[in-house]
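Q: Protein A?
A:
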Amino acid sequence: MKKIIFCQTPFQIIVSLFIKEQIKNINDQVELVIVDTFNDYQIIAERIQKAKIFEQVHVVCAQELIKTKGLKNIKKFFSIIFLKHKMKKIFGKEISLYDEMYYWNYDAFIASFRSYQEIKGKKIKNFIYDEGYISYMPIDEVIPKKNFLKLIEKINSIRGIKSVKRENTDGILLFEPEFIIKKPSYPVIRLNNTIDKQILKKYLAKIFEAESVIKKYDRKFILFEEAMLANQETVDDFSIFNNIVNFVGKDNVIIKLHPRTKKNRFRDLGVKILGSDGIPWEAVMLLGDFKDKVLITIGSGSITNCRLIFGGNITSYMLFRILNIDLPQFNERYIKFWNDIGNPQYGKGLTIPTDEKIFWESLREQIK
């Protein structure tokens, strides 16, 4: 069987290693697609190819099918109409037909690839995979279907492949299926995290070359900036980060900027700032030693991702409850997930405080 995994972020590359371990059978060919949606994607793809982890690594430029502003909308429309030509242009050759595909970002590119397979007469099985906490929430509520996906579905109906829709999937692979908020209409499949950690470390070291970056995390308190601001969502993390810096001391703090941040808002705080280095935090944490560190975030998926994949007992705080963040993923409707992942029975270390006074008292203990 031929199987293909799509990755649009460095974190998804890590997840792809677990997927490959789980789905690979003796006669299977598992290939990887790296999309041009993150820094150094070409270099990372070359390292993966060199490490011979997958049978083949495709590097594709699909921004035209992913971005949705201005003239790109017009180009995207014609790409959807002339689908066969566009897929050949993106992949640089005639695309193979596959038995299974795995992805998280169901955008116009993924929908077009899937449509192409169906047009060619291949009934491809398709699976969503774990992308952190948002994967455990009802997808139509936290990621509403965009107009271009609706357009593709209408065009596909005319083409005679009306079953090609986001909701028509063969399953979702999750590290912790019991954490899911609402059981979907399709199967929920456990994604095993039992891959040998030494083998995983070897792969990640080759892919991301993280040694020099790990050495930079030389302070006790590591604060994670949110993706929310990059997503143009209003979240005041600056005030509480400033208070934390003053509370624990500037020389004890690192602020890790979000990879999509374009402006360093924390420069005047006088603390060590680490920007985007193209290496996912999950790889840094597995390859480094952080047992004596304290991780603090409003609601960064970096902390929950590590907990879902690796477990572990690293001291961590998520502060969205004491800040009353008004975002869908922190809505009371989804409290089950946060209660589950913060449950000490699942692993010590993570605290999601509901009382700000208790948080500061707990933080005081960490200074000692």
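Q: Protein B?
A:
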Amino acid sequence: MRKAILYTVLLFEIVLMNGCKRSCYLHEEKECNYVNQMRDTLDTELLDYRPLGATGMLTFNNYIFFITDDPSGQLRVYDIEKEKEIASLCLPGRSINDFISPRLVPDQIYMRNGEIILPLIDNFTILKEVNVTQSLKQNSTVVESHIPCVNPKDGYFALIDNSLKKTFVYNRPVMENGGCTTPVCKIEEEGETTIIPVFDQLIDGEDNLTSFAQYMGAIKKHPQKNLIVQALQYMNYILFYDLDNNNYFAIHQKGTRSFDDRVVSGVNYNPQTIYFGDVAVADDFFFATYWANCRNNPDTDIKSEVLKFDWNGNYLGGFVLTTLIHRFSYNEKNKTLYGLDLEDDKVYKICFKDELLK
């Protein structure tokens, strides 16, 4: 009888503890194993082109686009087939066709009426659609439309249906009044806002800055679908936002710190350790740079590690490079991954083995 009572009390305590368990992330977390896997070392081919002061890169069709700090042309257009620069656009200025400081929108670029449209953020506050096709014809920047946008300092956004009128917005936490807010995900359409419940409460960090840092990680959108991924910098997570099907989930490396663990420097958190960096998207898969192994072993010849996943969150493999790649972009037309070294303005073509493209 006494054993039965003790069992009942223990069961009640377990149920009570589970019921009170923190739940920072509200959706399914799929446990994966993508760390410390065998990786092939791939070769890289250095292109005979160095965009001065490059800060971003995107490839589409026959072109590679570079965002630069060069005032003689803040958008450089490189023709892949001709193997040379063919245009220098987005000159400094304050007119509608000029730019103060352009930035890419999560690597989005699309066709409209048979012409290439490249959306760019200017001066952190204005979203401009550059008609690349007309700009190349006229040898001058042609901005087709423009609207106010989310300041990248406050969060990230992506265009839904490649339209300026509808955006997915990820607002990072805000440190204010001695506290820190929970991240907010939402859809904004012509003045209407729909909140997407993703995070229930803030990660339990030893201080506000620690909690804030766990949510850093830029978003990237599928080339065609309204499907977005976010690879986190300081956690072993990739978050998926399938807006077309209202399906949200995450993949998480087994055995590593989770959303519901308390974050303590020197115990389970090192602000110098970055996990995921840039993401390059394709129709059937995406690549993500993974820095934790390379940067924790500075004496190794390996300078970059890249992982490959499908859009369902399945790990498909990976490779390592002996060259340093900070930004990269995949060209669907010629099935080539291009990389950019921000330190030396070097551009590389990554030489794939056939099995990595299957």
